Amino acid sequence: MKSIGVDVGGTFTDLIYCDLDTGSLEINKVPTTPDDPSKGVMEGIHGLLAKVGRKPDEIDFVFHATTTATNAVLEHKGAEAGMITNEGFRDILHIGRHQRVEHYSIRQELPWQSRPLIKRRNRMVVGGRLRPPHGEEIEPLDEDAVRRGAQALKEAGVQSVAICFLFSYLNPAHEDRAREIVAEILPDAFVTTSSFVSPQFREFERFTTAALAAFIGPKVRTYITHLEASLKAAGISGDLRIMASNGGVATAGMVSEKPTLTLLSGLAAGVLAGAWLGEIARRRKLITFDIGGTSADIGIIVDGKLAETDSRSTSIAGFPLLSPMIDIHTIGAGGGSIAHIDRGGAFRVGPRSAGAAPGPAAYGRGGAEPTVTDANLVLGRLDAHDFLGGGMKLDVDAARRAVDGLATKLGLGLNETAEGILTVINANMANAIRSRTIQKGIDPRGFSLVAFGGGGPLQGADVAAMLEIPEVIVPPYPGITSAMGLLTTDFKYDAVRTAFEVSGAVDLAKLNRSLGQMEAGLVARFEADRIALDHVKFSRSGDLRYVGQGYELRVPLPEGEIAEANLPQVWEAFHAAHAGEYGHAFPANPIEIVNIRVSGVGLVPKLARPAAPPGGSLAKAKVRTSPCVFRVGGKLQSFETTFYHRRDLPVEEAFPGPAIILQTDSTTLVPPGASAEVDQTGNIIITLGAAQ
User: Transmembrane region positions (predicted)?
Assistant: First the structure.
């Protein structure tokens, strides 16, 4: 089976070709085309096919990860969206919940208020009401009001509409009928409902998830449509599969209907690749550290298992999200992050990014503001003539001018300012990792940092040193790692439904009926995707809490029918999970099943263990030595630094820093006091020393 993995980032589009029968690999990297990312994708695919000598019709699958949705939310560049909801509930999206995100801050920013996904003037209210616990109608839907609201949204020029009614997770009838009416009046608009996107209780989170779908839906749908057309025009008849946030892949059609599935698409692929690489390198505790041009993404892997989000902490750019996904923390910090002085006079780096156009000043495309890439170039940590394997020449003078302009404002020297940019951005990233480890009771000093993306290997050692992480792993193709992750995953679909069953009074017939219906729905989805059911594995879980608690913990549910005989093991699993999370449990207290979940995984062939690299010698790998600036012992110092070509490095032969390792898709930094060596799987293992 011949597959191509494509990861579209904010600055570059990364591609990898793999013949899963022979294990042969080839990579390609091209600039992202922000106006239409599919153009960059097709340019990269054509270049990749030329490299491997394959015809388009020989490709069986194109696996694709994209940051289109993520960046649209992070940069708040989505569609002009509208909403139709119940009378009296127009402002749910604005009010949120009574809990404060930051309990003691009087100046905290609430994104749903400062930058709403749907403007208040575009939120229409209509009559109609359902009631819990079964979703009976107590007031019929006012269809005329729906038509008036849809017409007003049409006149306002909205591109998408979210339909959000109370208790629709119990009965979607009102939302479904409203959707039909809106589609008649706005046939070209993206229209979705909260019960379709996320049939769970908690109206603020459910409404916001639907609003996110409406905000990003038109952009995602247009992109997927263009990409499918471009692939067909190029003669590629293989199936297009899109990376979803839950760690699996989905069809293009499903993603077009549920665009929130892609909100952490490329990020999830990177974490999967990190888990795969960790297993190969025999490391069981990993922190994945993916730096692109726009963002830095962090994931945690313990004993080969990926951390998953829960309803308490799932969010994107501060907006709560009810959607199954791998626990990935994203901040606006990347190679294109712009250094600036804010209105209060503070020195900051990011989250605003130069992106792919114009990009950092060093790219010579008109960028004039100093970025992280420019700072690295000024300090000598990038090779101006060997960037992207020589495919792009960097403009050192332009980078110096950009950084020098900031230096003048700060009253600092050129190197001090450049090093300050890196210190600030690295501190931001280290703090992001602390929030996922130390603040959750996890000691990062027992982990390895897997650094990848275009910028991860360049910043990884410095960030690891800030956290006292002893080891950094740089994959064989760090800039293409997320694309590689696409070839290590399976098809995965999830179904979730709110149940509300209390221990001692569980309606087992209803519970089993609901689980059966959910599994049947997933079976139909796999059959539609032509996935053989004998290659599909199903698992069940539930979101449980003690009666009276506000949040839940996820525990596995038994396979097959749930009966009085196996129900106690569910309660015991919850007690154990609660004790593990909070340090205590209440065995005598009643337990409530809030949500039930079914996950289906369709197994597909995966990327094989990489062959051992051929190896070379340090003498052969050496390119040159030149001065680079580092801060050691609190002082800026210039060190003669050896530059190596990665492809020629020896295997299992340690060499000291400072060193810069060059390859087509990334640059790896080994700082003073550290050492590095290539292992038998081609990873670079950087061991940090006391000087860090």
Answer: none
Residues with Cβ within 8 Å of 194's Cβ and at least 6 positions away in sequence, in order, are: 162, 163, 164, 165, 168, 169, 175, 206, 207, 209, 210
CA atoms in the 13 A half-sphere facing the CB of 120: 9
Predicted pLDDT at 690: 52
Tokens of 405: 């302009």
**Contact at 8 Å (CB) between 205 and 170?**
no
Q: Are strands 337-341 and 347-353 parallel, antiparallel or unpaired?
A: antiparallel
Return all residues near 312 (Cβ < 8 A) that are at least 6 apart. Answer: 551
Quote the CA–CA distance of 128 and 141 in Å, as a whole number.
Answer: 4
Peptide bond connecting 558 to the previous residue in cis, omega within 30 degrees of 0: no
How large is the greatest C-alpha to C-alpha distance in the chain, in angstroms?
Answer: 81
Is the bond into 658 cis (omega within 30 degrees of 0)?
A: yes
For residue 375, the one-letter residue type is A
Instruction: Please say whether the beta carbons of 89 and 269 come within 8 A.
Output: no
Name the 3-class secondary structure at 408. Answer: helix
**By the 8 A CB rule, do 73 and 319 touch?**
yes
Cβ pair 19, 42 in contact under 8 A: no
Q: Which amino acid is at 660?
A: I
Q: Residue type at 539?
A: S
pTM exceeding 0.90: no
Question: What is the per-residue pLDDT for 312?
Answer: 67
Cα–Cα dist 486/36, whole Å = 22
